Amino acid sequence: MSFARSTRAAGDRVRGTVEDGTHRARKPVFYLVTVAFVAFLLFALRESMVMVGTAWTDGYAFPVHRVHHMMIGGMLTVFAATVAVQLYRPAKRVGALQAAIAFAISAFVLTVVASGLAAAGEILVFVIPVLLIALLHPARRQLVPTLERMDARLIALAAVGALGMATVAVGEYASHTTLTNEHVAFGHFEFMLFATVSIGLFALLGALRPTGWRALVYAAAALAVLFAAGSLAFPGIEQGSSLGTAGALATVVWAVAFVGLAEYVDRADSTESESINAEPTPAESV
């Protein structure tokens, strides 16, 4: 072995040892930060999260805010859940953390756009921990989206849903910046702005089929159906935001089709992989 080759081999061994040691040191910090952040979310957001259910009840204290409150409750519940699931086999939950990152960043950026940097500063208490968890994550390299497992049919359907939600988001932004009612005062249109954008991002990221893709696909579909159901159940203009009857029904159809296609693609890939693995090698067939 030449001196240069020996040097490279020694360097690779040292680098591998350092990376392994760094990974072992990072793991307990990852769990500590994640546990602390989940506890904070449950404490800070518990009243908001339960609105996903209470907003449907008779005698609700804020009847003109039902649609907004159920969407706030639903989105925050999904956000908390995507962080909490990192505590069990996080390397298998990459898609869930991608959803949390997408929501946190879109909330921050769109709040800057809609209300200014000062208003967005309040969201940093959610953004910074999520990014820290991502940096400490055991599978952090997989958090960067890739096209390796993308399915063209699924990405096309995701794009349809994302485009529809982007159209709604434009309307929410216009309402936030031009109206002066209580929905604006409470920041409801602003929340709906980054909630609808997040649904679209979840769909697009889910269509790339990362490890744990179901968290993204099912979150996008569930939140879309929640918005549609609220629009159908409480169609009054006083609610401030609505998909309308036709839009709500189309959204439900899209959500069902998106989940169905995602599962079909996954099943087809699994069947193909099993067939390839079952084929005998040339040596075996002799």
TrEMBL record:
Bilayer-crossing regions: 29-46, 66-88, 95-117, 123-140, 152-171, 191-208, 215-237, 243-265
Alphabetical UniProt keywords: Membrane, Transmembrane, Transmembrane helix
Protein name (Swiss-Prot/TrEMBL): Uncharacterized protein
